[in-house]
Amino acid sequence: MRRIGWMAAVSLAVAGPAVAQADAPSQRALDRLADTLDYRFEVVDNRPACPADVANCFLATITLTIPDNLPAALRTGSGLSLYFSFVNPLARVESDLFEHSAINGDFQRLTLKPGAVLRPGSRHVIKLWGVGSHLSRAVVMPNAYLAAEGRRARVIASTRDTIDPDTGLPALRFVAPMTDAARLTTKSDDDKTVWLTPERAFAENAERATAPADGIVILPRPGQAEQHDGASVDLTKGVRLTLTGVERAGIAPALAALGVREGGGLPLAIRVDPTSGIAPEGYRLEARADGVAITAADAAGASYGLRSLAQQAAFEGGKMRPLTVADAPLYPHRGLHLDLGRNFHGRDQILKLVEAMAAYKLNKLHLHLAEDEGWRIEIPALPELAQIGSVRCHDPEEKRCLLPQLGAGPDGAPGVNGYLTTADYVAIVRAASARGIEVIPSIDMPGHSRAAIVAMERRHDRLAAAGKSAEADAYRLIDPADTTTYRSIQNYSDNTLNVCIPATYRFVDTVVDALAQMHKTAGTPLKTFHLGADETAGAWVNSPACKAMIADNGGDARNLTPRFIERVATALAAKGIRAGGWSDGMGHTDPARMPANVLTNIWGVLHTGAIREAHDQLNRGWDVVLSIPDLGYFDMPYAPHPDEGGYYWASRGVDSHQVFGFMPDNLPANAALIATTSAEPQAIEDKPVRAPGRRIAGIQAQLWSETVRTDAQVDYMLFPRLLALAERGWAPARWTPPYDPGQSYAWQDPRVDRAALAAGWRDFAGRVAVQFGQLERLNIAYRVAPPGARIVGGMLEANSAFPGMAIEYRVRGGNWTRYKGPVAVQGPVELRSRSRDGKRSSRTVMVSPP
User: Fold this and answer.
1) What span, in angstroms and rounded, lies between the C-alpha atoms of 265 and 787?
2) Which burial class, exposed, middle or buried, applies to 822 when counting CB atoms under 10 A from its CB (0-12, 13-18, 19+)?
3) Could you give the 3-state DSSP secondary structure of residue 850?
4) Domains, the chain
5) Where does 25-97 show beta strands of DSSP type E?
6) What's the half-sphere exposure (Cβ side, CA atoms, 13 Å) at 439?
7) CB-neighbour burial class of residue 814 (10 A; exposed 0-12, middle 13-18, buried 19+)
8) How many CA atoms are closer than 13 Å to the CA of 745, on its beta-carbon side?
9) Extended beta strands in 523-606, E state
10) Which residues make Cβ contacts (< 8 Å) with residue 281, sequence separation at least 6?
11) Residue ranges of region Disordered (predicted)?
12) Is residue 323 a contact partner of residue 287, using CB atoms and an 8 Å limit?
């Protein structure tokens, strides 16, 4: 669903052999070293001459500077460990002091070489030969820490995940700037990617010229909307509400969003009539000086009518021009996926996103509740899942918590750790349901399941110690006699449920039943359960429990994952629940063994598998949702630049313009607008063709959270490009050529109406600028894009991606000045944009005279 091998999360540890507590340094000495040890990380070269035994390498370094006041007890490193994280597999580590060995996943070890001594004031450079590439500072993990036997582990102060006060985002001050474009931008000459410098951004912004919104500002854009002359529609004095065919509770959140007093003023009539001929979730809005009328076929449509009214009324200060709207969504599935497994994001953040989803007419919330790195939902019958599986801390034996992957640090502190209680989850489902949003819980299996496996091993240990062997085995998810050696994409050796044992299916039933009960308590049934089903490693080959099942499936253990999916999907169907999964796992199943009602998320990259998977699974009659990373993975960076956050295995840049331009109804046509990950134009063939009458169910944004540790980062990575996805899920991309089976498309293919795209973008960008104020009212810290800028003839020129963004500039070291137009400057100039409310800024960029 999201990774390729070189982006597997990796950690590094410096550790001496286990020693008795008496030989360990004192807590005071350990604390002082953690406070004073200087730790620096640098990406040196993405195109180095690799060592003879290392292929596809890059070179990074960690530089440790030992403090001058190093206590004598620490100079031999006896009992001392240093743990830190990294985001690529390590092929070789070279150091004058340390030896390297892998532990698991992104947790690894360097041990002090025999006879090696740490000297006060000394400086040590550790060379890390990683596999793949390291193209962004943002994928460096924070919170390196020191530990010793019997002592409390301490984060090295210089690596703490500090927050930049201007941007509100992690600063990663221990990571060296990446400035050498020749060595750091690409892996090879075949990669045509260039960094988005201020000069290039200026040209890009100018080409996509935008203007402030004027007229109808509703987002997503309605199917039909028209303003009229005449007396204004005055909402400032409140409304007199009358309801027909709908209870107030069915529209309450949307009514609250309108933000006007009730009990007097303008008549507001809302009628819900299933026989009205209006499409599901659609509405008709008539706003005149003598009153407002909204008609819909369901409560969702009535709510969307109110949301549209609220946006337009806010733009016009509560006194609107008369307006008529006839509107309905293009697709029934308009989704947002949020990964809570890698790094936790809690109830308040999710509730905030639920309200934002409703504001922009998104209707599916896909909550990824479990991963290798964390279990995030309370299951009362299995308390260890939340108690142990939700926390990462310093506990090498994992008796109390999971290994501290992804720079979680040693303390198990809130933030990246945590889980939703049953009450939290019920509150989320209730809030979502009240806004017409279906919550789709996801528990990834049989791969990506390490948190569950470890937690259930601790349950087994507790009950076995009490002499309850049968109860202990009831939910054990592994075959203890299995000697299979494997590595998952994320470099884990033990993250896959054993699909051949009854305990696994008992576990699935218990978890699903618990989730179904929570939905029932919330007053809305569990309709869809997403089982992941992706990226299953080469497990079970040597599992005695799987011997017969492997034999029954052609002697190939790889066939066991499809059998697992088919069995779970069938069991879900028997409970009245639709099964969902990621397209790679779902595509290997036998359709004859699957229920008819199936949801599949297509996560193949546009140029390397999206069309094959989407059309194949459409032709099976399944509900296909496009989750294509080039357009829908919002953990990818906004732009190709080392200071932009996110992983980059699928795209070096997914900006709002790229998302807005997506053509869901003609996937091959996207080759006209989107190049490969290496920025190379490449044609896309329509193979296999889409069968007549088949149409996608919708589109979905995904935010995976490996690099997203704070709620502010969630907001930054989602907005404003989630608004572009909301537009594409609701309104047609009018530049799309009609789908013609078997037709291939090439870069800048003339059949794609680029003039219509340009006009659509200008209109959309203006409407987005209007929404920044609404996002701020929702406390959403949307991305403030750095300005484009250039210096020509001694004059500084600057522009922005969206109209109306404030731009500031300064000569380095000077005071910030508001940019109002071309201005004479001398020497390099720094620039930044500011949020609409002035509370946050973009990252700072610099331009120099040519």
Assistant:
1) 44
2) middle
3) coil
4) 5-184 (2.60.40.290), 198-218+753-850 (2.60.40.10), 224-327 (3.30.379.10)
5) 38-45, 57-65, 80-86, 90-94
6) 29
7) exposed
8) 27
9) 528-532, 578-582, 598-602
10) 298, 300, 301, 304, 328, 329, 332, 361, 363, 436
11) 831-850
12) yes
d(C-alpha 543, C-alpha 133), whole Å = 35
Which residues in 383-415 are b (16+ Cβ under 10 Å) and which e?
A: ebbbbbbbbbbbbbebeebbbbbbbbbbbbeeb
3-state SS, 296-354, equals ECCHHHHHHHHHHHHHHHHHCCCEECCEEEEECCCCCEEEEEEECCCCCCCHHHHHHHH
pLDDT confidence bin for 149, thresholds 50/70/90: confident
Eight-class DSSP state of 420: B
Non-local CB neighbours of 769 within 8 Å, separated by 6+ positions? 210, 212, 213, 802, 803, 804, 805
**Cβ 798 vs Cβ 832: under 8 Å:** no
Measured over the CA atoms of residue 608, residue 611, residue 612 and residue 617, the dihedral's sign is positive
Q: Which long-range contacts (CB under 8 A, 24 or more apart) does 376-380 make?
A: 376/340, 376/341, 376/344, 376/418, 376/419, 376/420, 377/419, 377/420, 377/425, 377/441, 377/443, 377/515, 378/419, 378/420, 378/421, 378/422, 378/425, 379/510, 379/511, 379/514, 380/422, 380/514
Strand (E) or helix (H) holding 839: none
* Cα gap 281→332, rounded to integer Å: 9
pLDDT tens, position by position, 13-49: 343 344 445 567 889 999 999 999 999 999 999 999 9
Q: How many CA atoms lie within 13 A of 847 on its CB side?
A: 28
Q: How far apart are CA 774 and CA 311, in angstroms?
A: 9
Query: SS3 of 572, please?
Result: helix
Residue 471 structure tokens: 């109860």
CA 344 to chain centre: 12
Full-model pTM: 0.96
Specify whether the CB–CB gap between 263 and 274 falls below 8 A: no
Residue of 42, 535, 644, 706 marked active site: 535
Report how far apart, in Å, the C-alpha atoms of 802 and of each of 46, 133, 377, 699, 719 are.
Answer: 33, 32, 39, 24, 13
DSSP 8-state secondary structure symbol assigned to residue 511: H
What does the pLDDT look like over 161-197, one tens digit per residue? 999 999 999 999 999 999 999 999 999 999 999 999 9
CB 652 within 8 A of CB 588: no
Give the amino acid at 611. I
Could you confirm whether 706 is annotated as catalytic?
A: no
**DSSP for residue 610:** I
Question: Which residue is listed with tokens 């303390």?
Answer: 411
Coil, helix or strand for 618?
helix
CA–CA gap between residue 458 and residue 450 (Å, rounded): 12
Q: What pLDDT does 10 receive?
A: 33
